[in-house]
Design a protein that fits this description.
The protein is α/β, with parallel strands linked by helices. The chain has one domain: 3-Layer(aba) Sandwich (Rossmann fold). It is built from five helices and eight strands; from the N terminus they run βαβαβαβαββββα. Strands 1, 2, 3, 4, 5 and 6 form a six-stranded parallel sheet that branches. A two-stranded antiparallel ribbon has the order 7-8. α1 crosses α5.
């Protein structure tokens, strides 16, 4: 199973802190899973210009191909000005409309206010559904108060992150098995 963690901003540390925790959890509980953490702050991504994702080279080509090759994607995103960052939206724009078909996608969201949980419901989930993702319905929402010195200090958040990893892996295994069973039923 190939899982890609996508930290969807080029600034800040909270989302990356949460994604690092997820990476450690996956390595600990699912050592056979191939996990890649992509932090957009580490890459020079071009703006989408409508080309097929396979035509992009360099960092842009690498990131889009990693996402397209994944079985599961865990998206980590901060909320800025009551919206997802433009860097994350650009990644969605670089990919084809059905990019997440047969992929499980889960989410970790960091925000300064509890009111920003609606951004996931009103912006992120509709984009992922449009791109045909199998969405893990429960996402982890982490507020400013849950961090201290680049560490997660809320035990409930830690529990929810661990559960998100379990749900992502279980849902991916389930959908993979269902697709294999469906494909095996065809005579050709």
């Amino acid at each position: 199973m190939k899982i890609v963690g996508l930290s969807g901003s080029i600034v800040g540390s909270k989302t990356r802190t949460a994604m690092n925790y997820l990476a450690e959890e996956i390595a600990r509980k699912y050592p056979d899973a191939e996990f890649t953490l992509i932090d957009l702050a580490d890459y020079d991504i071009q703006y989408s210009d409508g080309r097929n994702y396979l035509e992009y080279e360099g960092d842009t080509g690498f990131v889009t191909k990693q996402l397209m090759d994944a079985d599961a994607i865990i998206i980590g995103t901060p909320i800025f000005q009551a919206s997802i960052p433009g860097t994350l939206k650009n990644i969605f724009d670089l990919l084809p409309q059905n990019a997440f078909l047969d992929k499980v996608v889960s989410m970790v969201v960091t925000a300064g206010s509890s009111k920003h949980y609606l951004i996931v419901e009103q912006q992120l989930k509709p984009i992922l559904a449009y791109m045909k993702a199998q969405i893990v319905q429960t996402y982890v929402f982490i507020e400013e108060k849950d961090f201290h010195q680049k560490q997660i200090v809320n035990d409930d958040v830690v529990f929810r992150l661990e559960r998100l990893v379990e749900d992502t892996v279980l849902l991916t295994e389930t959908f993979t098995k269902l697709r294999e069973d469906r494909d095996a039923s065809y005579d050709f």
